[in-house]
Amino acid sequence: MGSISKIHELLTTKQISCTELTKSYLNEIEKSNGELNAYVNVTGEQALATAEKVDKKIAGGEEIGMLEGVPMTLKDNISTKGVETTCCSKILTGYKPIYNASVWDTLNNQNAVMLGKTNMDEFAMGSSCETSYFGGAANPFNINHVAGGSSGGGASAVGANLAAFALGSDTGGSIRQPASFCGIVGLKPTYGAVSRYGLIAYASSLDQIGPITKSVEDASLVFDAISKYDDKDSTSKGYSGNTYSTLNNDIKGMKIGIAREYLEGIRDDVKESILKAAEIYKSLGAEIVYFDLPALKFALPVYYIIACAEASSNLGRYDGIRFGYKTEHYNGTHDMICRTRSEGFGEEVKRRILLGTYVLSAGYYDAYYKKAQNLRGTIVKAFNDAFEKVDVILAPTVPMTAFEKGHAVTDPIETYLTDICTVPVNIAGLPGVSVPCGFNAKGMPIGMQLIGKSFGEAQILNAAYKYQQAANENFKDTDWGVKL
Amino acid sequence: MKYELVAGFETHIELATKTKIFCGCTTEFGGEPNTHCCPVCIGLPGTLPKLNREVVRYAIRAGLAVHGKIADVAKMDRKNYCYPDLAKAYQISQLYAPLIIGGYVELSNGRKIRLHHIHIEEDAGKLIHQHGDTYVDYNRGGVPLIEIVSEPDIRSIDEAKEYVEKLQQVMRYIGISDCKMQEGSMRCDVNISVRPEGSEKFGTRTEIKNMNSITNIAKAMEYEYERQTDLIESGGKVIQETLRYDDATGTTSSMRSKEDAHDYRYFRDPDLVTINVDPQEVEEIKANLPELPADKCRRYIDELLIPEKDAQLLTKYRKISEYFDEACEGVKSAKTVSNFIIGQIFRRTETEADKEIFDVAVSPAQLNELVKLLDSGKIRNNLAKSTLEKMLDSGKGAMEFISESDMGGLDENAMTELCKQAVESNPKAVADYKGGKEKAIKSLVGFVMKNSRGKADAAAAEEKIKEIIG
């Protein structure tokens, strides 16, 4: 049983009150966050107020929803009215949004209990959570290792049982990669399935909010709750139907594809786990189909060009005039903006703003941005063609396991390479779910990715759930946090 | 050597939609600073634009009114530049796939000024410098604009003035904007160059930014034409640069050179989806367009036999032409209505602003009633004229001032009698007339008009008097 269902049962059978449950989460956060640095802001008072509301409903005999009273957390780039939302950047310190992100409106209306905001790479730019202005989040399996990024805080919190689920955002792997590093489940939905309204943009054409959970059924429940059409987001489509009811469908005859390119240049232990997963699928009656996806080689440069280009524009608004950090000493407006940005942004953010500005500049636009857009089309088409032959694609989530702290900062190029398996999904706007599929010799989790066709969440979650049932030993709990 | 002026215009027009282009805030002019704002139009992190479809419809109206082609598919782009009044540090505009392509504005000399395209975009806020500090007011941020980009087809300052006037006129007619240059709801950037007469090659152009009156456009262009020709004549070269015009000194000065020109790093806005235009929607908009001023003017001349100059006056503002159309309903001669409007009513609406509003005490129906009395011969022209003055003073209908006895005109005998009296009691005028002063007859006619209390027909009286004098 997933954490959400378990909590729902505990609450409705009155084995524990929502207030007690929330308090125990808050206590565990208090105890462990010093080491894990998963949370950058704990909103205990607000959490307890919601819990009280839920308890009153239960006491009054009212029915409660599946997510009602469930302690959870939001990545610090999801806007929360009146609660500081910083993207873990100095430039947004002190910024309290005056409106809620649509996903939080949805969950808040269902009385989900927000425990706080979780750590992330600054503006979601990074793969280790270490570009955070507040320092990186630690991996619950080994605190000398990173939690991954950019949604490292959410993955660390869920992995350490400091929240039942987290919402993260995924631009190039930022949900799936930390989920993989922390041995849990992370779903990056189809572009347009979940509203982006209120998600502080990194790269608008790639960003997507999704759940980070302990189990596939939790991911499914949360996805079903947040995948609604939103009039405030023009790119929103919403998800028709639900994924939960088909989780346990038989996968006999399902065609699971493995693109050979995905297995190139990955660590042996990771490759082994993926191939082992393929064997399990075979035993469940699925058909494994090997195929080529040569367009994948373009994915990384295409991703970095498009993401940085959009970021350079999206981050132009941080000028110290209306919100967030503003430099203390300056001489005139121009100087104020320059100083505010120089002081407020971290190195990785500056690097990507510069890259993005460069690729959009007159004389370079055609050579970089336009070419990248064309290749994006090529990649989309390659995936479409692949899905003519297969139902779901199986791939590693990351070519390696969680690296030690400090590694990413010293070698940015290698860090960029960790995204190689995750970025194609964002470029093509497809859904992808990362599921734990083993451990390396040092006991660090390995993750596999199931990629679906556009709006094929039901299929990949179905495949993931069947795998979870068959290989439950890979879904290992840690010693941290609240034991349900 | 004689030099020819070459100019092209980029004209920004604020659309009169109720709400902004990407959010639900009001577009109303003025208001306390930052009171017409929301998270979207002040660019708070995480907010997303949502295109106001009404803006697309307004722009399509504009496009149709200038004979442009409406694109089936249009896209929004980001124009990136950093300025405190631009909340997001980019303006959402169109570069790669604008909504309207081509079109033209026809001038009175028959020349067609071709349009390159028309695109939709958002306006920026405003900086307020006060007490040694700079403040930002975002009320105007996100107000919808169209930018009409012409080809370099303008060849004189008169053409430039007429081009702007024509645009202003047609956009007001179709009701998409009030086009008030002084309030900034219409602004022009002028691209100007000169070349030796007869030359095919364009000279180097300069761009004069943000012109806010037609008078200034003319003055700035005149100055710039002189400056460029003088420069070339004296062996110098025109530098491509952006200029500002200083109204006080009547000169232009450099804002930035080509080297310092902004690199706007345009790219498709990923937050907004493709704008699809249904041809049926375009047809509906077309069907609902009012008669355009050029067509109206042609119709007045050709069908109502109004002199061209008068037809232009009547069509300059939509309100006047609508007033005229209504007052003409069922009358014998539209020319009579036109004469009343231009001859008398215009004296009550002296300024252009008054003419544009055309708030007249006499309703078109009341004028129509008066003209019909005249048509039927029940009253004479002079009585009609003086009655109209009284109507304009009071706002009352014609019948308030015309008694039964006024109507029906003068019978033949009474007329002859009055004319005789006129001749007898004005020997000097008679003598003058006989002596060759043609005009002297007017005072005799005046006598008849006065003593008939305007009932007499002036032309008939003149004839009769001439007959009596012999």
Distance between the termini of chain B: 65 Å
The general outline of chain A is globular
Could you tell me the strand content of chain A as a percent range? Answer: 5-15%
CATH fold title of chain A: Amidase signature (AS) enzymes
Q: Which structural category fits the helices and strands of chain B? A: alpha+beta
**What overall form of chain B do the CA principal axes indicate?**
elongated
Outline:
The complex is a heterodimer of chains A (484) and B (470). Chain A has 484 residues and is α/β, with parallel strands linked by helices. Helix content of chain A is 39%, strand content 14%.
Describe the 3D structure:
The complex is a heterodimer of chains A (484) and B (470). By secondary structure, chain A is α/β, with parallel strands linked by helices. Chain A contains 16 helices and 13 strands. Chain A has a single domain, classed as Amidase signature (AS) domain (Amidase signature (AS) enzymes, Alpha-Beta Complex). In chain A, the strands form two sheets. Chain A has an eleven-stranded mixed β-sheet, with helices on both faces. A two-stranded antiparallel sheet of chain A has the order 4-5. In chain A, helix 7 (216-226) packs antiparallel against helix 16 and helix 9 (299-314) packs across helix 11 (347-360). With 470 residues, chain B is of the alpha+beta class. Chain B has three domains: 3-284, no CATH class; 291-406, no CATH class; 412-469, Arc Repressor Mutant, subunit A (Orthogonal Bundle). Helices cover 38% and strands 19% of the residues of chain B. In chain B, helix 5 runs antiparallel to helix 6 (308-315). The radius of gyration of chain B is 29 Å and the shape is elongated. The N and C termini of chain B lie far apart (65 Å). The relative contact order of chain B is 0.09. The chains are: A alpha/beta (484), B alpha+beta (470). Chain A binds chain B through residues 77-79, 85, 87, 92, 95, 97-99, 101, 196-201, 203-205, 231-235, 309-310, 312-313, 316-319, 321-323, 333, 337, 357, 360-362, 365, 369, and chain B through 39, 42-51, 78, 80, 82, 84, 87-90, 134, 136, 263, 265-267, 270-273.
